[in-house]
Design goal:
single chain, about 230 residues, alpha+beta, Fumarylacetoacetate hydrolase, domain 2, 8-stranded mixed β-sheet, 4-stranded mixed β-sheet
């Protein structure tokens, strides 16, 4: 994964400072820190915001959900769904395990600039995670990111995969996050989870009463349902 260019640092810093302050406040209020996300992994979005690579956000530890969960919080939020893989970090920054995942993001108010995007932890709302498999097993799925995942959302067309959005070598995503965090006073820990970035450039809505299902082939299936009004 291409690291964000060094000259992006000053652009990222104001939004990252607010984002990480909110993370510290959430931890102080009782949230268990669970990990991080790679965001803005689509080249066209990077160009729109004037940066040279992806960015990092944090996962809401209060909303790391098991596959099959019913989402009944934030009823007035415009939720969208992104098919991703969830990485679990082992000792020494080594990729330990991989799971199929969905990220729920908030598109209620589209961010007007990079500061608004970063300070919101890149629109993060929740993480839905399937069963983990050893990293070595996931590495033997050559069509991950090309054929898989296949995403279905009730009443919405399946968005096309953006081939190459997530690196084939998932350790590169771990290394990217591990390299980015110290620049902002944080560090990657063993046991952290990482959402490695969306496999689809377009993100479908998750309307009230809708169900999303992502089939990652040999990696497994992950599902979530949004409560109806």
């Amino acid at each position: 994964m291409t690291a964000t260019a060094n000259d992006d640092f000053e652009q990222l810093r104001p939004g990252m400072e607010v984002q990480l302050l909110r993370r510290r406040e959430a931890i102080a209020a009782g949230m268990t820190p669970r990990g991080w996300k790679v965001g803005l992994n689509v080249a066209g979005v990077q160009a729109h915001f004037g940066i040279g690579g992806p960015c990092v956000g944090w996962l809401d530890g209060r909303r790391v959900l098991a596959s099959g969960a019913l989402v009944d919080f934030l009823p007035d939020v415009s939720m969208r769904i992104e098919p991703e893989v969830c990485l679990r970090v082992g000792e020494g920054g080594r990729l330990e395990a991989v799971a199929p995942a969905l990220e729920i993001v908030d598109f209620t108010t589209p961010p007007k600039d990079l500061f608004a995007l970063l300070s919101s932890s890149i629109l993060h709302v929740a993480t839905v995670v399937g069963a983990f498999v050893p990293a070595e097993q996931a590495a033997r799925i050559p069509e991950l990111g090309r054929r898989w995942p296949i995403l279905e959302v009730t009443g919405e067309p399946t968005p096309p995969l953006g081939e190459g959005l997530v690196p084939a070598d998932l350790q590169a995503s771990v290394d990217f996050v591990a390299g980015m965090l110290p620049r902002f006073g944080e560090r990657l820990m063993a046991g952290d989870l990482i959402l490695a970035g969306s496999y689809a450039a377009a993100v479908p809505p998750l309307a009230p009463g809708a169900r999303a299902r992502a089939d990652f082939g040999p990696l497994g299936i992950v599902e979530v349902e949004r409560a109806g009004r």
